[in-house]
Amino acid sequence: MLERLSWKRLVQELMLCCLPALALSAFFGYLPWFLLASVTGLLIWHFWNLLRLSWWLWVDRSMTPPPGRGSWEPLLYGLHQMQLRNKKRRRELGRLIKRFRSGAESLPDAVVLTTEEGSIFWCNGLAQQVLGLRWPDDSGQNILNLLRYPEFTHYLKSRDFTGPLNLVLNSGRHLEIRMMPYTDRQLLMVARDMTQMHQLEGMRRTFFANVSHELRTPLTVLQGYLEMLHDRSLEGAARDKALQTMREQTSRMEGLVKQLLTLSKIEAAPALSLNERVDVPGLLHGLERQAHTLSQHRHLFSFEVDNRLQALGNEEQLYSAMTNLVYNAVNHTPTGTHITVRWRRLPHGAEFSVADDGPGIAAEHLPRLTERFYRVDRARSRQTGGSGLGLAIVKHALNHHDSRLEIVSEPGKGSSFSFVLPERLIAEKCP
Q: Residue 126 and residue 123: Cα distance in Å, rounded?
């Protein structure tokens, strides 16, 4: 419609331009000259409007076009409407790109967009952390110049992206990299950090190896004595020693299995509601009697318990944590050690601590004490029946109560194991 309207206006303008020439030629003659002058004036007017349009497009660049008359009015109006539509489309495209980048930033993987040759034209924030890229400084850089690993270079150049590439960075980080072609000559690279999974797999292998080793020793002892009993009859002291040793090894295996079951139960427990009222003073009074029985008068005990101070949480897990800390102090300190157990109020919560004046622990062992089956002195642990799982149980039980185990020790000056329950898990008896 605008096109037909524009042609009509052009014809009308030409006719209006010729009317004065026809009128003047009726009086003076010289019709061709008057027509030439009229058409020349019309061309000059169109040329002037063309200059205004060129100025607006290349110099002014404002959203509003210059005012137009005649046949120029629909043209300038159409250009203005087209510019408005393009602006709207740019806004929509900008929002679409923003949503894409926002979604890519929220992904748990590093994402890099490259050309088929490997030139980077976008990456998310995680790619900067995991792969060490810098954005926008690395825009246009070839990714092979930034990730200099022969396996990655071969993977990218082979163009065989049917399976992922497992890459170990110089930092020790394990990555699973996938390349996916999309659109025309562009690649989408997704790198997933598998470091934690590799660590967990290593821990799993170590765990089963340790369990197998811990069970093999008592089973070997039992098998040896059973073969002796089968081959020959034992009498007197030899028989009593064999039976006592077998009972000890059976008890050791039973304790190991119980602690493994306890640890598995605590680890697999869902999030606790932590609304159960726990009578901690009552538990500690019972634990004091058990500690004296276990010690057999080899240690000196001081139980400093705030009898009004109770807690909210899971009674079984809290009692397991406290019991393991006290039993560790009894089992791993020599005769004559003074063991102090405290349950007291602090400004920011309630603290449970077990301190001793024993030989202490060297600093290099402290970060690993809560690992499964880790022992400072393996020979002594086997003599005392220790399984190396006690502090691992304590760690996981405290994690469920928003607390953590604090260990302070110095060789020759004793050790202290403590944890603080947060204020929201504290309950006190009414006076």
A: 8
Strand, helix or coil for residue 110: strand
Higher pLDDT, 52 or 296: 296
* Beta-carbon count within 10 A of 319 CB: 17
Non-local (6+) Cβ contacts of 393 within 8 A are 259, 262, 263, 266, 320, 321, 324
CATH number of 277-428: 3.30.565.10
**Whether the Cβ atoms of residue 352 and residue 320 lie closer than 8 Å to each other:** no
User: Does the pLDDT value for residue 265 go beyond 80?
Assistant: no
> In this structure, what token pair is assigned to residue 352?
């449970």
Q: In the predicted model, is pLDDT for residue 278 greater than 80?
A: yes
246, two tokens: 């077998």
What pLDDT was estimated at residue 21? 73
**What pLDDT digit, counting tens, does each position of 9-51 carry?**
767 777 777 777 777 777 777 778 777 887 787 788 878 888 8
Task: Indicate the pLDDT class of residue 418, thresholds 50, 70 and 90.
Answer: very high
Q: Give percent of the chain above pLDDT 90.
A: 15
DSSP three-state, residue 163: coil
Average pLDDT over residues 392-404: 86
Q: Please check whether residue 111 is in contact with residue 188, taking contact to mean a CB–CB distance below 8 angstroms.
A: yes
**Domain at 107-193: CATH code:** 3.30.450.20
Same CATH fold assignment for domains 107-193 and 277-428: no
Structure tokens belonging to residue 162:
């049917």
- Three-class secondary structure of residue 369 per DSSP: coil
**Higher-confidence position of 113 and 379:** 113
Using DSSP's 3-state secondary structure scheme, residue 118 falls into: coil
Tokens of 15: 């006719």
User: Could you write out the DSSP letters of every residue in 38-105?
Assistant: HHHHHHHHHHHHHHHHHHIIIII--SSPPP--TTHHHHHHHHHHHHHHHHHHHHHHHHHHHHHHHHHH
For residue 345, the tally of other CB atoms under 10 A from its CB is 13
Residue of 137, 139, 111 whose CA lies nearest to 125? 111
Q: What average pLDDT does the segment 189-215 reach? A: 73
Pairing of strands 338-346, 300-305: parallel
List the chain domain ranges.
2-93, 107-193, 202-268, 277-428
Looking up tokens 């301190």 gives: 355
CATH class of the region 202-268: mainly alpha
The predicted model scores a pTM of 0.49
Q: Answer whether 387's CB lies under 8 Å from 256's CB.
A: yes
